[in-house]
Amino acid sequence: KNAYQDEYGYVYGYLDLNKDKTIGLIAHMDTAPSFIGGCTDPLFVKNYNGSNITLKSGDVLTKKEFPILNDLIGDDLLFTDGYHLLGGDDKAGIVIIFEFIKYLLSNKNSSNYNISICFTIDEEIGRGPDKFDIKKMNADIAYTLDGESIYEANYENFNAASATIDFYGVNVHPGNAKDIMVNSILAAISFNNLLPNNMIPSKTSDYEGFIHLEEFKGDVNKTTLKYILRDHDEQLLENKKEMLIKAKEQVLEEYKGLKINLIIKDDYKNMGPYFIKHREALELINKAYLNSKIKIKYTPIRGGTDGATITYMGLPCPNLGVGDFSPHGKFEFVSISQMKKMVEILKNLAKN
Is 156 considered catalytic here? Predict the structure, then answer.
């Protein structure tokens, strides 16, 4: 009776157990737009034995290409059909929360907290927290369930910015172009070549940031580049912004008659600095894993999380894993065994 969908599409629910404090659990309903959804014939593998996995499409997952499979031997796994997205990001999180709530409804005395839940929208396009309401959530601490391995949790994420650069050239007939034409395509290429070639996603890991060219389109007259900038360190992100500004100045010096419009926008912040001073949410995780007899490792998220924005709204919100791997494509799969274990971890989280 305490569950509803608000005017923006967010689903809220509140389980009042007459406790002093409330833990919030958050997952997102939307799935990645980068691959077609609608998987109705997934491949179920019980007690995975370490062999290669051949999807129904004929595509093969090997342990060499997907080394995480080495850690999942003995688990029950669910794979895509090879043609569609499985959607475990973040249906797995939603299922885990439902199973946990189902347990609490029959075992209300097992929790020392009230439980609040929210299923958000638009996470995959970066707008998950836009209409999130912490008053409706009514929690003291919250957790997003949107990670991969349940043996890892996250309280650090990238600081993020985006940049759009429009290059305006001068286009005339090629036969009469000497000392007149300014090719915006060539100028854009020169701009990108001025940026560090080792500061890209395919050459960085862990705490290393990057400048990622994600769109390049145009013609002689106008070319547009779109970048995303990421770094866990706020000052290093500022340095990356400065690289773009300096590259703009150098290209303008080289291409006389060229015009450049550079727009840089901040997107979200790393929540890590918050949790250096506010440890309660992390201590509850540590106790829950200890009582579950499972080791926990904290790793930085090489991306964003709704929890970061929600944390800076005033609701501390680290991220927990759900057992979903290789998301956003045809090789996605979930460990049902890990999902079940996360339900048990949530039970211990609520007992703290």
Answer: no
